[in-house]
């Protein structure tokens, strides 16, 4: 039993799995730092279409806290799983609060919000199916790599 649990833990670690508590610890560590990082990118990838309902309010609060500490801190969000489809224009009527938060994060908080165009295309969703405040990157993982190349701190959720 211990070997099985150890194997599962090791595989989840290698796959980049990080519970939300770890992400909260990462935000706290950034807030306690003497200097701002080059930037922060929140990565969201989930097989749960409703993930953003719970995560975006938490991320918005984290953004507010980070910006209170480091006002000029560049921040981005990259969503590249099933959850990204909640951000389509078609879903706006059924999830107005989620869309209001997403639009506020982009417009009022000056955060770049990206979804994965490749993943969307696999499900027949075109770039034009997302509202203007959502940037459709050709590839979510490549977008994250671009931010990492700029020395952004990666916080992976959920």
Description:
This protein has 158 residues and is α/β, with parallel strands linked by helices. The protein has 6 helices and 5 strands. The protein has a single domain, classed as Hypothetical Protein Ychn, Chain: A (3-Layer(aba) Sandwich), CATH 3.40.1260. 46% of the residues lie in helices and 15% in strands. Helix 4 (96-107) links the parallel strand 2 (75-79) and strand 3 (112-116). Helix 3 (51-69) packs parallel to helix 4. The relative contact order is 0.19.
Which tags fit this structure?
Hypothetical Protein Ychn, Chain: A, disordered N terminus, single chain, 15% strand, 158 residues, alpha/beta, 46% helix
CATH class: Alpha Beta
Predict the CATH topology.
Hypothetical Protein Ychn, Chain: A
Query: How many extended strands?
Result: 5
Helix content estimate = 40-55%
Order of helices and strands: HHEHEHEHEHE
Distance between the termini: 26 Å
The class by helix and strand makeup works out as: alpha/beta
User: Domains counted in the coordinates: how many?
Assistant: 1
Name of the CATH superfamily: DsrEFH-like
Tell me which CATH architecture applies here: 3-Layer(aba) Sandwich
Shape: globular
Cα-atom radius of gyration: 16 Å
Q: Walk across the major sheet and give the strand order.
A: 4-3-2-1-5
Q: How large is the count of helical segments?
A: 6
Strand content: 5-15%
């Amino acid at each position: 039993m211990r070997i099985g649990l150890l194997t599962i833990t090791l595989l989840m670690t290698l796959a980049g799995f990080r519970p939300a508590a770890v992400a909260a610890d990462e935000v706290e560590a950034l807030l306690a730092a003497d200097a701002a990082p080059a930037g922060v990118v929140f990565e969201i990838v989930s097989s749960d279409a409703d993930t953003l309902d719970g995560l975006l309010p938490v991320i918005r609060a984290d953004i507010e806290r980070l910006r209170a500490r480091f006002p000029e801190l560049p921040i981005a969000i990259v969503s590249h799983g099933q959850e990204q489809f909640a951000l389509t224009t078609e879903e706006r009527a059924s999830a107005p609060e989620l869309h209001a938060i997403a639009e506020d994060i982009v417009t009022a908080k000056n955060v770049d919000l990206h979804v994965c165009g490749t993943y969307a295309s696999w499900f027949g969703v075109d770039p034009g199916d997302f509202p203007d405040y959502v940037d459709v990157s050709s590839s979510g993982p490549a977008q994250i790599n671009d931010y990492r190349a700029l020395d952004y701190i990666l916080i992976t959720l959920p």
